[in-house]
Amino acid sequence: MEPASSNPDERRKHPRRRVLLTGKLAYLGDNVTADCTVRNLSEDGAMITSRHFHLPDDPFLIVLKHGALHEARTAWRDGERCGLAFTKSWRFSGEAPEPMRRLWRALLPA
Q1: What is the model's pTM?
Q2: Which of 22, 44, 49, 66 has the most Cβ atoms closer than 10 angstroms to its Cβ?
């Protein structure tokens, strides 16, 4: 585990790294999805950008094209930017249950 940031104003447990990933927000109970861009990422959260923040409330799923699915809640919002806190995570390297793998394939087809 990497040490927390030496910045005293930093509130995250794990440092985030800059990324540029495509993802999809999914609210399955409402059958609503929206595209997003992940701008930074850690094991317990992310900062995304999207023009679709009029979506239903937490919790929701975020599916990342690089092979991960996260249940998330909104930590903060600022215009098109949004901070997410992950509450559950699955990787698609074999540990995810088959229903989660099917969901990932359905939301982000190859």
Answers
A1: 0.75
A2: 44
